[in-house]
Amino acid sequence: MNDDTFDALERRDPQERERDLMAHLPALVARAQGAPGWAAILAGVDARQVNSRAALAQLPITRKADLKALQAIAMPFGGLAATGVGQLSRVFVSPGPIFDPEGRGLDWWRFARPMYAAGIRSGGLLQNCFSYHFTPAAFMVEGGARRIGCAVIPAGAGQTEMQVQAIADLRPDTYVGTPSFLRIIIDKAREMGADISSLQRALMGAEALPESLRAWLRANGVPQVFQTYASADLGSVAYETATDGAINPGMVLDEDVIVEIVRPGSGEPVAPGDIGEVVVTLFNDDYPLIRFATGDMSAMLHEAPPSPCGRTNGRIRGWLGRADQTTKVRAMFVHPSQVDNIARRHPHIVKARLVVSGSMAQDMMTLRCEVDALPSAGTMAGMTAAIVHTIREVTKLRGEVELVARGTLADDGVLIEDLRDYR
User: Fold this and answer.
1) pTM here?
2) For residues 419 and 81, which has the higher predicted lDDT (pLDDT)?
3) Distance CA 327, CA 321 (A)
């Protein structure tokens, strides 16, 4: 590590990096083929010949949206893990449910890079407000902090007054978590009259970070606000960097991934600079992922000048939406299949549409349900309460319910409608 970049890999000549990635690609494909799921997906592929981006682009896409079905056939990881369950460190359960492995290596999720780029250094103290319950984000931070050499307050999510008190008493220099929760903490600190001015930076993930919210956080006492792009299957994919306090354009790619931008619904790469679906090939011996389609939309910063921070890897524009109807609400993925599941549990629901609304990271979720006939007020209250309970059970999130007459919802196949205002 030095003052500017985490290691020399981040400052490599781009052509050297490309040669290194392509030289290691055949071994990655061969490693994947040793797992039964990948052996089926990559049947007939000669790993030795997969040594270029053109050759990689000929391999089939494996979609994040397919993981639940693959895992139902071959528990727990759909045959995609190259390391046995007993040799792993942890097994996570994400909504779906989808199961994700964590191996035993130091900084297995490669989170030290985005943390270091945000200014986190050895000897610092950070408050980790990602959930420690079932999902891996908190443990990504733990691994990165251990590699950098800083201490962690394992705060998790919720208990806002305790969060404020911990910051006021322990004086951490960094918040790590979702942007919406940091806003809640700041509002609560103001209400309590607590001093949380020790927070000099925030490293955000798991939610969109609109520029309006970034500006609000800066204006309310957190001068440096960074965004990461990571997932429970891939770990770190890309992250923001800064020079002289100003955020550099785009998000720098991690050193252990190959990112393609493809036309949604196909594996065909788009023209340089065009928007498409993010497809990632991950160099990970425990959980090698080959052309893994995330469902997220982005674009490469085509012909952009080198980042002023000194990192030479390619950059993406950041998260630009979803290729399907899956969306994130309060840092949790909600899938169209979950909306269908909720509706099927209540026979009186003819059709359902989940509407996500709100602004400035204050997400609201309302399930609009068509019924044949609107019931009386007393019956409606009971029906609504039952559906609210099912929403919570299926999505792990609280949602409201609106009962509407049959024929109210558009016949357009939309199960999740995102109406949030990110201005």
Assistant:
1) 0.81
2) 81
3) 8
